[in-house]
Amino acid sequence: MSYCADCGLELAAGTEACEQCGRPVEHEAAPEGGYYRKEGYSKGFLQHDGRTYSVSAFAFAVLALVAFPPLFALAAVALGYMGYRRGDVQLGMMAMAVGVIFGVVGMLLGVLVWNI
Ligand SMILES: [Zn+2]
């Protein structure tokens, strides 16, 4: 039995990529042992922790569309970065991108609304 090097998910024999995080499975013999399993599990928990930040980042990104774009967009990018640093790489990076985009769109909307 092997485990994903990234998130610690148990991998079925013959799997090409991890079901949970999408990391391609390395086919060299992985060291079997408590240490690696433990590390994998704690990484899994960290990723779960990061997910909380990434999801909050999306909420702030949406808020940036309707109110105080620079403030909420900054919060979204910061939270997305926290999620990214805590192991939720894909969603964290997406949240940062969405934070920047929604921040810019929100500011443009604000300019339109206030100048008309
Ligand atoms: Zn994985």
Walkthrough of the structure:
The protein is mainly alpha-helical and 116 residues long. The protein is 66% helix and 3% strand. The protein has three helices and two strands. It has a two-stranded antiparallel ribbon with strand order 1-2. Strand 1 (2-3) and strand 2 form a beta hairpin. Helix 1 (34-66) packs antiparallel against helix 2 (69-85). The protein is elongated and about 65 Å long. It binds zinc ion (ZN). Zinc ion (ZN) binds at residues 4, 6-7, 9, 18, 20-21, 23.
Quick recap:
With 116 residues, this protein is mainly α. It is built from 3 helices and 2 strands, in the order E-E-H-H-H.
List the helices and strands and how they pair.
Layout: E1 2-3, E2 10-11, H1 34-66, H2 69-85, H3 89-115
Antiparallel strand pairs: 1-2
Helix pairs in contact: 1-2, 1-3, 2-3
Bound molecules: zinc ion.
Zinc ion binds at residues 4, 6-7, 9, 18, 20-21, 23.
